Amino acid sequence: MNWKEFEDHPRRQRLDTRQRAFTSEFKAATTMEDRIYECEVKRWFMLNGEKVREWKKVPVIEALNAKTSEVRCSDCHGSVRLHGRHVAHGPAPHAEHRSRQDSEYCPSGHYFKQNPGRTPRLSENPVP
User: Fold this and answer.
1) For residue 27, what pLDDT band results from cuts at 50, 70 and 90?
2) By the 8 A CB rule, do 36 and 96 touch?
3) How confident is the model at residue 28 (pLDDT cuts 50, 70, 90)?
4) Which residues lie closer than 8 Å to 95 by C-beta, 6 or more apart?
5) Which stretches of 1-128 are DSSP H helices?
6) For residue 91, how far is the Cα from the chain centroid?
7) Which of 19, 21, 22, 44 is at 20 to 30 A from 99, Cα to Cα?
8) In whole numbers, what is the pLDDT of the chain averaged over residues?
């Protein structure tokens, strides 16, 4: 049996398919991601003829482009760090909690996802 026959053998193809399925399931189960793709930024709005600052939910890429300093998680209102895409094959622009404690009790945090019995709550140090 030469290499081409080995690659085309039906049993070999079936094993490869099973292995690929197992690998993708394993990666999905073990990947700990604290990637938040939407956040809240504080913006100026006109309300009844007055300028007021309100929180608005926006995609992270828009928050990065606006270069605003007041950014928070839309779920727990805790402080987040914005990460842009630095290389073409890198992760998409996303946010991560600055505080592990916020991540432990925020539904978007990976520490919350690690401990399934926790109940979500707002941050103890919310961004005003």
Assistant:
1) very low
2) yes
3) very low
4) 35, 36, 37, 39, 60, 63, 71, 73, 80, 81, 82, 83
5) 3-8, 10-30, 60-66, 100-105, 110-114
6) 10
7) 44
8) 79
